[in-house]
Recover the amino acids of this structure.
């Protein structure tokens, strides 16, 4: 477990735009979040849900109680949490059934949210594939990958995303549109890599 | 630049282009990079497939509520006094249940609509809470009543509504083969219901056959008032495309597809679609085999087939009990064609202004009187569409609402992302709520003024601590813009300054350019030129939408012109005229408006002949390309009297002023601000023509009107008082009559401005002139002293300081204190040269005072002088 002061300091650095501390930050927050996520996931077999906001909130409160953080802005914490949650999701998918891999695209039409299970993670989606492609995207452009990560694994709205990205909602919208097309094509075996 | 960055940037531009232009751009940009071109093509293809999809969230923020959405999960649960019995239906946004009252008092069945909480965001929920209060007040026999609304313990919003047992509107008409008159009567009852809701300031936004049920006894009932679209706002697809269209593109009005402001015009359009289907048994918008994109394009650009010429009339005729297609066609031709198509015009402002107007035409048709829609449509169809976005300033209650809505619409144009557009809608909603608060009796009482509305909105905003800063800033800007349009720059300035502070504090990028533009505009309206350069400088380098660019350009040139840099103003405007021509087109409203501004500036540059030529040509073009009575035509006409006045052509000035008054009455009515302004222009022309008494009488009428509309403490009122005083003083030489008007302007100015404000100082100098003529010296001294002291500190090199100091010297001389008079004049000596022309006349007066003072000292030499 990291020293309390360390997390606060890392976060302060990160908020000023220093992305190099991001990994260290994720590592610091990871234990608390993972523990919470596991307890949420326990007993969910058919599909699984993580409640991103609640999860992050809970972790946040926990860290606050431990005097580990003094963030003014929860959005920043949620953004960090998204990275952690991505890891938890991927770990979970991997451990649950390594033989079973869906091949579907990770997109959903708004109309089809009628399905009662829409909010449960979709088994037909190739989450490991998403993870891999996302890692590939990050190698080309970390900002684009970050937007996608926040989209899939974070509980932030566009405005909050823009805030933690240090851009505008317009930019986030444009990045998402590109990344979505890129991802869709990549996952359906298109676009040879750059 | 990395490959992916380049690819992203090209993609970003490409998706904003129409399909036809994409290839051209690809050819241009990727001429020597075939792999990049191929990748981009694939990405565009991929984009078209997933454009309407959003991320399949790996994590749901609201997993807890899932169980509530399993079919049947809520059966047997109690909400309020109602127990849920069965599920009636479900859709993407939630489910509807039938429930019965259980508290024993009366047997009552209701419909309960539950909204998926995860599809509603914070602001939407806020709006839902606000709106349901209003919805509960909708009490009309043709509207399914909202009985209650609230949230379940887990936060799921619900609405309890009157349960309607009936059949879809069109299905009902067709099953019974209702003849034309009965169809129209039933349709009229629907219109009545919608009009009644509009009077309570509720817009349905999603009227369609399936939302209108007809009960067994033939009563039409409207469902889901104000609710359905509210929910769509909340459903979030963090994407740039609008989502409304994917939900029911066939029923969307053009402005909904464009993501623009939703107003009563949207309901008028929907009623038009319904009427079209009733008359032709065919939809106005063809959907067979078309993609959503094609349908959208059709809604945006294609005019629907004239009903009487529709190919489907042969099928329709029997359903309407007509013997043949020909006979049905004959029945539709003319009036019903006109009424239907007027509802379906692409631009909301060109449809019926209200559902009441539509009803009036339906009644006229039934009673075989001429309908208003007829004839106009032919003209309409041959015209190029020109968008109107000017602010009407008439002040009947409905117009006031339009004003507020337009202000929000203008604000909306400056932002591009859907989420922000929602914010703009929230702003409008908020304004409408304040409208309701100010006018509990409903719009029909007609007594509310826009001023009260805006003040109410401001008070409400200040009292509401819960708003997020971006929403709050957007509200403030909207209120500020409306105040500015209303001629209350001081109020506007305070609001805009507050918004700008929020923008800076919280880095609200999306609002910064708009905030700076409004800051500059309100500073301009307050004659505070010093601040403007700074604002404009800060906008430089920001990316602004072209509509905002238009405003920025005109503020810049007006600022240059009014702060004495007239050549720079003309140069900048010439550039803006060329820019507007290129961007918007030669006959575009914007280009012509820019030209009018250029003409106006030529007048300021003392080139009235050039101004006249420019404005005459502009006006001719505006008359050709804009609808008759368009606000831009009025605005340009407004400039003509003063040009003719400057050219010493009083008759032409009067003729232009007469035309202006006629236009303004027709457009705004005779108790409007627009009319008051026209009266002012005519009064000025009368004054120029030497018909002083008539001019004064008109000015007084204008003042009365302005005062009633804007309150006594308003710059328009005080300016008019100055004008009245000037006619009395300069025209009739009646300083005694002029003085009270100047005094009143100063009194108003004192309320509005701090000492040292150029407007107030200007009033003071006018008043001083009258008091001087009247030789009321002690009053003159009392008036001038504080302003003089201020100028001495703050603007020692200003013409006003020189003028006031000269006046005070004259007072001293009149009081017999020649020494003081001379000591007051002496420090001015170095300034005459430096300030030049502007103080030439004062200098002459100062010399006379000096000579008089000197000679009085020589005539009655002081003893000590003689001795020395």
């Amino acid at each position: 477990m990291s020293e309390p002061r360390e997390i606060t300091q890392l976060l302060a650095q990160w908020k000023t735009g220093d992305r190099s501390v991001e990994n260290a930050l994720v590592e610091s927050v990871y234990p608390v979040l993972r523990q919470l996520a596991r307890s949420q996931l326990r007993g969910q077999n058919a599909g699984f849900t993580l409640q991103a906001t609640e999860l992050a909130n809970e972790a946040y409160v926990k860290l606050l109680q431990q005097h580990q953080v003094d963030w003014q802005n929860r959005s920043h914490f949620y953004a960090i949490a998204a990275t952690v949650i991505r890891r938890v999701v991927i770990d979970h998918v991997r451990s649950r059934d390594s033989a079973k891999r869906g091949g579907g695209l990770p997109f959903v039409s708004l109309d089809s949210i009628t399905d009662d299970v829409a909010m449960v993670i979709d088994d037909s989606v190739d989450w490991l594939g998403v993870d891999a492609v996302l890692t590939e995207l990050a190698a080309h452009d970390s900002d684009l990958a970050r937007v996608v990560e926040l989209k899939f694994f974070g509980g932030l709205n566009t405005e909050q995303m823009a805030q933690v990205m240090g851009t505008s909602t317009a930019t986030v919208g444009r990045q998402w549109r590109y990344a979505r097309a890129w991802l869709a094509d990549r996952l359906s075996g298109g676009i040879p890599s750059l | 630049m990395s490959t992916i960055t380049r690819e992203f940037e090209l993609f970003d531009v490409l998706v904003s282009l129409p399909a036809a232009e994409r290839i051209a751009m690809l050819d241009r940009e990727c001429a020597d990079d075939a792999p990049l071109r191929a990748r981009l093509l694939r990405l565009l293809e991929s984009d078209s497939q997933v454009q309407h999809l959003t991320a399949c969230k790996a994590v749901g923020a609201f997993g807890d509520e899932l169980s509530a959405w399993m079919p049947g999960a809520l059966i047997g649960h109690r909400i309020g006094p109602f127990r849920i019995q069965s599920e009636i239906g479900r859709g993407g946004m939630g489910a509807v249940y039938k429930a019965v009252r259980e508290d024993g008092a009366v047997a009552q069945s209701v419909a309960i609509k539950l909204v998926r909480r995860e599809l509603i965001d914070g602001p939407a929920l806020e709006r839902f809470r606000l709106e349901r209060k209003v919805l509960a007040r909708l009490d009309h026999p043709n509207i399914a009543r909202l009985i209650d609304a609230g949230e379940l313990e887990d936060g799921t919003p619900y609405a309890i509504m009157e349960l309607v047992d009936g059949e879809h509107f069109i299905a009902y008409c067709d099953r019974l083969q209702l003849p034309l008159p009965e169809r129209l009567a039933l349709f009229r009852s629907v219109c009545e219901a919608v009009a009644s809701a509009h009077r309570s300031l509720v817009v349905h936004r999603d009227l369609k056959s399936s939302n209108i049920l007809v009960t067994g006894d033939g009563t039409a009932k409207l469902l889901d008032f104000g609710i359905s679209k509210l929910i769509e706002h909340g459903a979030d697809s963090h994407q740039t495309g609008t989502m409304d269209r994917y939900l029911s593109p066939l029923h969307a009005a053009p402005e909904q597809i464009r993501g623009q402001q939703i107003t009563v015009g949207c309901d008028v359009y929907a009623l038009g679609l319904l009427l079209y289907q009733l008359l032709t048994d065919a939809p106005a918008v063809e959907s067979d085999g078309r993609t959503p994109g094609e349908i959208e394009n059709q809604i945006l650009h294609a005019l629907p087939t004239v009903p009487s010429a529709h190919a489907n009339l042969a099928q329709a005729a029997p359903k309407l009990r007509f013997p043949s297609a020909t006979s049905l066609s004959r029945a539709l031709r003319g009036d019903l064609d006109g009424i239907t198509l007027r509802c379906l015009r692409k631009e909301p402002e060109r449809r019926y202004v209200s559902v009441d107007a539509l009803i009036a035409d339906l009644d006229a048709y039934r009673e075989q009187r001429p309908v208003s829609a007829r004839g106009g449509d032919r003209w309409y169809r041959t015209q190029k569409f020109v968008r109107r976005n000017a602010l009407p300033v008439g002040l009947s209650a409905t117009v006031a609402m339009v004003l507020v809505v337009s202000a929000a619409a203008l604000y909306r144009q400056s932002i591009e992302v859907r989420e922000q557009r929602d914010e703009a809608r929230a702003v409008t909603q908020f304004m409408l709520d304040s409208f309701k608060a100010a006018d509990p009796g409903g719009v029909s009482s007609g007594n509310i003024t826009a001023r009260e509305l805006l003040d109410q909105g401001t008070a409400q905003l200040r009292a509401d601590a819960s708003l997020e800063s971006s929403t709050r800033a957007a509200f403030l800007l909207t209120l500020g813009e409306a105040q500015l349009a209303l001629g209350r720059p001081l109020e506007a300035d305070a609001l805009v300054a507050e918004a700008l502070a929020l923008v800076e504090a919280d880095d609200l990028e999306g609002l910064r350019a708009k905030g700076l533009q409004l800051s500059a505009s309100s500073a301009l309206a307050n004659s505070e030129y010093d601040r403007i350069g700074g604002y404009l400088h800060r906008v430089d380098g920001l990316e602004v939408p072209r509509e905002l660019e238009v405003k920025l350009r005109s503020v810049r040139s007006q600022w240059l012109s009014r702060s004495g840099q007239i050549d720079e103003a003309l140069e900048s405007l010439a550039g803006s005229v060329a820019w507007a021509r290129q961007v918007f087109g030669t006959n575009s409203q914007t280009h012509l408006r820019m030209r009018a501004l250029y003409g106006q500036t030529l007048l300021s540059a003392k080139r009235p002949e050039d101004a006249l030529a420019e404005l005459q040509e502009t006006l001719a073009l505006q008359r050709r390309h804009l609808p008759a009575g368009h606000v831009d035509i009025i605005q340009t006409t407004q400039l003509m009297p003063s040009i003719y006045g400057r050219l010493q052509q009083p008759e032409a000035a009067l003729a232009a002023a007469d035309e202006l008054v006629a236009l303004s009455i027709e457009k705004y009515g005779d108790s409007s601000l627009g009319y008051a302004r026209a009266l002012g222009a005519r009064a000025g022309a009368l004054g120029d023509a030497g018909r002083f008494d008539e001019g004064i009488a008109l000015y007084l009428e204008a003042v009365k009107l302005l005062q009633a509309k804007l309150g006594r403490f308003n710059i328009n009122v005080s300016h008019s008082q100055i004008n009245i005083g000037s006619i009395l003083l300069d025209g009739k030489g009646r300083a005694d009559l002029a003085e009270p008007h100047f005094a009143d302007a100063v009194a108003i100015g004192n309320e509005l401005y701090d000492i040292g404000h150029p407007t107030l100082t200007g009033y003071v100098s006018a008043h001083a002139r009258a008091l001087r003529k009247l030789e009321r010296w002690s009053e003159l001294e009392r008036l001038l002293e504080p302003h003089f002291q201020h100028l001495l500190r703050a603007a020692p090199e200003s013409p006003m300081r020189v003028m006031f100091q000269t006046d005070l010297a004259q007072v001293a001389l009149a009081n017999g204190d020649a020494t003081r008079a001379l000591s007051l004049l002496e420090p001015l000596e170095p300034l005459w040269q430096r300030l030049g022309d502007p103080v030439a006349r004062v200098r002459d007066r100062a010399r006379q005072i000096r000579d008089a003072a000197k000679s009085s000292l020589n005539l009655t030499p002081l003893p000590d002088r003689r001795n020395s």
